[in-house]
Design brief:
- The structure is a single chain.
- This protein is mainly alpha-helical.
- About 80% of the residues lie in helices and about 0% in strands.
- Helix 1 packs antiparallel against helix 2.
C-alpha cells in the first residue's frame, strides 16, 4: 500500500485536482456539444442554397445527434465521478445544477431536431 497517511495535505490537494479536472471535463463535454449544435443550426441556415434539402437535413440531424451524445456523456461522466468521489472532503458542484444543465441542453437539441424534421 501507500506510505501516505489519509490526513496528509497531499491527499487533500490530490482531491482538489481531481475535482477540478472533473469539472473541466464536464465543461468540455458541454462545450463540444454546443459546438455541434451550433454548427448544425448554422448548416441548416446558411447551406440551404448550396445543398439539396434532404442531405442538408441528414447532416443537421447527425450534428444534433452528436450534440445530444455529448450532453448525455457529460451527465453520465459527472455521475460516475461523483460516485467515485463521494467520500471526498471538497465540495462538488451541486448535482442538480450539473444534471439540470445537461437535461436542458438535451431538450434543446431534441427540440432543434424536431423542428428541423417537420418543416
Amino acid at each position: 500500500m501507500s506510505n501516505i497517511a489519509p490526513d496528509d495535505p497531499r491527499v487533500k490537494l490530490a482531491e482538489d485536482r481531481t475535482v477540478l479536472a472533473a469539472e473541466r471535463t464536464y465543461a468540455s463535454w458541454l462545450r463540444t456539444g454546443l459546438a455541434f449544435l451550433g454548427v448544425g443550426l448554422a448548416a441548416q441556415r446558411f447551406l440551404r442554397e448550396v445543398l439539396p434539402a434532404w442531405p442538408l437535413r441528414v447532416l443537421a440531424l447527425a450534428l444534433f445527434a452528436c450534440a445530444l451524445a455529448c450532453f448525455v456523456a457529460a451527465a453520465w461522466r459527472d455521475g460516475a465521478i461523483r460516485t467515485r468521489l463521494n467520500q471526498a472532503q471538497i465540495h462538488l458542484m451541486p448535482r442538480a445544477l450539473t444534471l439540470g444543465v445537461a437535461i436542458l441542453l438535451i431538450a434543446i437539441s431534441g427540440l432543434a431536431a424536431i423542428v428541423l424534421w417537420w418543416p
